[in-house]
Amino acid sequence: MDLGLKGRKALVCAASKGMGRGCAEALAREGCEVWITARHADVLEATAASIRKATGARVTAVTGDIATEAGRQAALAACPEPDILVNNAGGPPTGDFRNFTRQDWDAALEANMLAPIFLIKATIDAMTRRGFGRIVNITSVTVKQPFASLALSNGARSGLTGFIAGLAREVARHNVTVNNLLPGSIATDRSEVFVASHAKARGISREAALAELEKEIPAGRFGTPEEFGEACAFLCSVQAGYITGQNILIDGGAYPGTF
């Protein structure tokens, strides 16, 4: 299927690896010109080179922390009027909320709620003027199924979700869609932390812990960054123009609810 994205400009945040990279590569494969951001220049440049080689697309690396004003300004200076914005940032630490400081909460809110809002604020009016825009926010399954140990993520990402619910309806008539992708267990560096934690708690090997966790997923496995990226690319397509304000789970069926 041709997603109708050839020549579109896409800004993908935190895209040196994992789900962000999956999204960037999928969009590049569809003919987008892509700008990717991340904090570590060496890894980011290597990723940009790899995506260029795989897709033939023009890919620009912009080093910076998207959770900071300086990082956002660098990204917007390189790609001031994207047609597609994919918001992404690393998840905050896990733990008992009683142990989190004000600084912990501020950092979580800055990275996982305020940074996406500020980037949307900087880009959405130009999208509405052009009559095309696609914004995808990578959040988490915890928006629908909170876990006590993920209190920082629960709070920050749910705040973003509430903001998006109102915004999406405001801009839909301009062919600008805003959706959230909610990853469950995706095979990324962060998922390895959870596998290691499970292994330690159970006193078992990493392989045995992974097998136990996979048994809890109806699909019987962790998802891949590549298939996550393909879902993102579809939400950015011309065919997805009637999908907006949605929270779409990418979790292999693990969420147990009906709604």
Structure, briefly:
The chain has helices at residues 18-29, 41-55, 69-78, 102-130, 151-171, 189-202, 206-215, 225-235, and strands at residues 9-12, 33-38, 59-63, 84-87, 133-138, 176-183, 247-250. It is of the alpha/beta class. It starts with 8 loop residues before the first strand and ends in a 9-residue tail after the last strand.
Give an account of the 3D structure.
Pfam families: adh_short_C2 (PF13561). Belongs to the short-chain dehydrogenases/reductases (SDR) family. This is Dehydrogenase. It comes from Hypericibacter adhaerens. There is one protein chain. The protein is an alpha/beta fold. It has two domains: 9-184 and 225-245, NAD(P)-binding Rossmann-like Domain (Rossmann fold, 3-Layer(aba) Sandwich), CATH 3.40.50; 185-222, no CATH class. The chain has helices at 18-29, 41-55, 69-78, 102-130, 151-171, 189-202, 206-215, 225-235; strands spanning 9-12, 33-38, 59-63, 84-87, 133-138, 176-183, 247-250. Strands 3-2-1-4-5-6-7 form a seven-stranded parallel sheet, with helices on both faces. The mean pLDDT is 96.
Q: Give the helix proportion (percent range).
A: 40-55%
What's the CATH architecture of the largest domain?
3-Layer(aba) Sandwich
Largest sheet: 7 strands, parallel
Oligomeric state as shown: single chain
CATH superfamily of the largest domain: NAD(P)-binding Rossmann-like Domain
CATH class of the largest domain, please?
Alpha Beta
Shape, principal axes of CA atoms: globular
Q: With helices defined by DSSP (H or I, 4 residues minimum), what is the helix count?
A: 8
* Portion in beta strands: 5-15%
* Rounded radius of gyration (Å): 18 Å
For this structure, the CATH topology of the largest domain is Rossmann fold
Protein name: Dehydrogenase
Organism: Hypericibacter adhaerens
Family: Belongs to the short-chain dehydrogenases/reductases (SDR) family.
Pfam family, one: adh_short_C2
